[in-house]
Amino acid sequence: MSNRFRQVDRETLFLLPPSMDDWLPKEHLARFIVEIVAQLDLTAIKAAYAGRGSKAHHPETLLALLFYGYATGVFSSRKLERATYDSVAFRYIAANDHPDHDTIATFRKRFLPELTPLFVQILLIAREMGFLKLGKVSLDGTKIKANASKHRALSWKHACKLEAQLKAEVEELLRHAEEADRSDLPDGLDIPAELARREERLTAIAQAKAEIERRAAERYAEEQAAHEKKLAERQAKEQKSGKKARGKQPKPPVDGPRNKDQVNLTDEESRIMPVAGGGFEQCYNAQASVDVETMLIIEGHLSQNPNDKLEIKPAVEALDALPESLGTIDTLLADAGYYSETNVGHCLRHEILPYISDSRDTHNPTLKERFAAPGPLPEKADAVTKMRHRLKTPDGRALYAKRKCTVEPVFGIIKAVMGFRQFLLRGVECARGEWDLVCMAWNLKRLHALAA
C-alpha cells in the first residue's frame, strides 16, 4: 500500500543551499516584473533617501512588490508584508527579505508623484519589445469607490439642522452645569465630556459647510459665465435679425449652497456618483485610453466629475504629450457619454479623428438597420455631421464595434480578476497616484501575456 504514494518528508535538510532561481517557473509574472523594474529609471526615488540610519530596502524591491501586488489583487501593505512569508512569488521578489507594512505603506504614499513618470517608461519598453505602435485608442471611464462611505456624507440642509440641534444641546448642558448644585443630574451624564463631543462635531460641521460654500461659489461662477455667454449670443442674434429673439429670457443662476449640496466627512474630495446596476456610491471617475491592438492602457487619469463629458479634453492632451517614438494617435473611439460638439472639436484640433456615438444604440437591431447604408454626405457638412456619417458606414461600424471589446474588458479584469474595486488612499491626488499604479500593474500583466 505504501508504494502507491510519494514519500512525504519534511524533516530532511537540503544537502546544498536552495537557490531562489529554482523557486519559480521561468515564465512567471513575478520574474517578468522584476526584469521590467530593473530597466526603469528610479533616480528621482533613490535621490530622496538621505543615507542616514539603518540601510533602507531597495526601491526596486518595494516597487516590484507593489506592481506584483496590484497585478494579483494584494493591495494592503499588511497583506503584502505577510505575502513575503507565505507566497513563493512575493518571497522571490523580496529576495527572501521581509519589508514591514509601515515601510511599504510609507513608500507607496511618499513616492506617488515619482511613480507617475514610470507609466511612460513602461510604454517605451513595450515599444522596444515590439508590441506597441500607437494608432487607434478606445476611451472609457469607470466609477471606483473611494475610501469613504456615502453614509458619511453631509448635505447643506442636514448640516444646518444638525448645527442648530447641537448648539441647543450645548446651551442645555451649560444650563445643567450652572444648576448642578441645586438639582440632580441624570444618571451617567458627564457634562464636560458631552460638551467636548458636541464642540468637536460642531467644528467638523463648520468645516463641511465651508467646503460646501466653496463648491457652491465655484459652481455659481461657472453658471454665471455660461449665462452671460447665452445672453451675449441672444443679443447678437437679435441685432443681426433686427427682431426680438423667440423663447424665454435665460434665467440667471442662483448664488449660494443648495439644500442637496453635500460633502463627505471621511474623504471630502470624493463625490457621490451613479454606479452600474443602479444606486449611488462615494466614488472617483477613473478614465483609461486603451490601445485597440494590444489592450495596453496608453493614458489614464482620475476625475471628480460624475459624467464623462469633460474627460475628452484631458485625455487627448495627455495622448498628444506622449513621446513621438511611441507613434501617433490618429483615431479615438468613445461612447455616447462623451458626445458633444466641443469634444469633437477637441479631437480634431489634436489631429485625432473622433468616433463618438451621439446616441445609445438599441440592442438587437433588425437586419435592415444593421446593413443600412448612409445617405450622401452634404457638401458643406460640419465636423459633427461628418462624424455621424462615418459612424454609419460599414467601415465605421466595424471600427466602432472594437470599442466595447477593448476598453471594457480592461475594466472588467481590473475589477473582477485583479480585484481592484476601491481605493485605499484618500484625497484626489493620492487616488490619482493609486490609479496610475493600477494602470501600470495592468500594463505589466498584459505585457507578460503578450510576451508569452
Describe, in plain words, how this protein is organized in 3D.
The chain is of the alpha/beta class. It folds into three domains: 15-115, no CATH class; 132-149 and 270-436, Nucleotidyltransferase, domain 5; 153-264, no CATH class. The protein has helices at residues 29-39, 43-47, 59-72, 77-86, 88-93, 101-110, 112-115, 118-128, 156-178, 191-241, 312-320, 341-349, 367-370, 383-392, 394-404, 407-416, 428-451; strands at residues 134-145, 153-155, 262-264, 271-274, 280-291, 297-303, 327-334, 353-356. The strands form two sheets. Strands 1, 4, 5, 6, 7 and 8 form a six-stranded mixed sheet that branches. A two-stranded antiparallel sheet has the order 2-3. The longest helix has 51 residues, at 191-241.
In CATH, the architecture of the largest domain is 2-Layer Sandwich
CATH fold assignment of the largest domain: Nucleotidyltransferase, domain 5
Q: State the shape.
A: flat
Rg over CA atoms, rounded to whole Å, is 29 Å
Determine the structural class based on helices, strands and strand pairing.
Answer: alpha/beta
Determine and state the CATH class of the largest domain. Answer: Alpha Beta
Please give the largest β-sheet: 6 strands, mixed
What is the overall pLDDT average? 88
Low-confidence stretches: none
Helical content band: 40-55%
Helix-strand topology string: HHHHHHHHEEHHEEEEHEHEHHHHH
Question: How many discrete structural domains?
Answer: 3
Ends: how far apart? 42 Å
- How many helices? The count is 17
Strand content range: 5-15%
Total number of beta strands: 8
